[in-house]
Design a protein that fits this description.
Elements lengths: L2 H38 L2 H7 L2 H20 L2 H4 L2 H21 L2 H10 L19 E6 L4 E7 L8 E7 L2 E8 L2 H4 L3
Antiparallel strand pairs: 1-2, 2-3, 3-4
Helix pairs in contact: 1-2, 1-6, 3-5
Length: 182
């Protein structure tokens, strides 16, 4: 075999190996970078790692679906005041989500593995625990990270989308108990 063929084969193996390494290791690396940014308070890195408009829209969509299910219940449908209240609540979803999805709330959620009420953010700073995240690949362009909480409660699932060769947090999936009808 000629020297050029050997070099081409070695280069091809190196490229395939690098692509495989990126495919399998980049989600864990992206999640680790996000956790490090949250733990160190690096707001620039955090804002570069999160697509805030997409995260807000994903939450709005889920909350609107919950509200629509609630509005379809007979006790709300048959009550004119219930309808008015439901319409008002539906209108408040945007403002609530806009106020909730902030760098500070994302810091807390990434560190704690759960959503925090605005008054609780920072209140438990001394109690912050390291949360382990299960990473599941959902195809070439998407992966999810789900917190493994020590208390057994489920938290929001983080949804990442590929952004160039890196990843950005682009959505949240609320835990089942947050979207289930009471």
């Amino acid at each position: 075999m000629s020297r050029n063929k050997v070099l081409v084969i070695l280069a091809s193996i190196a490229v395939i190996g690098a692509a495989a390494l990126w495919y399998f290791a980049s989600p864990a690396y992206a999640m680790n970078q996000l956790k490090n940014a949250a733990q160190s308070g690096d707001s620039t890195q955090l804002e570069e790692s999160i697509d805030f408009p997409k995260v807000r829209e994903s939450l709005k969509t889920q909350l609107r679906a919950v509200m629509a299910r609630e509005m379809a219940k007979p006790e709300i449908e048959d009550n004119p005041f219930g309808k008015i209240g439901a319409v008002i609540a539906m209108g408040m979803v945007d403002g609530i989500v806009e106020g909730f999805v902030t760098p500070e709330s994302m810091y807390a959620m990434i560190e704690e593995g759960k959503m925090q009420k605005p008054g609780e953010i920072g209140a438990q700073a001394g109690e912050a625990k390291s949360v382990n995240w299960d990473i599941d690949r959902d195809g070439f362009d998407t992966f999810t990270a789900t917190p493994k909480a020590a208390d057994g409660k489920s938290g929001p699932c983080l949804i990442f989308e590929r952004y160039g060769l890196g990843w950005k947090l682009s959505g949240l999936k609320l835990p089942p108990e947050a979207t289930a009808a009471p």
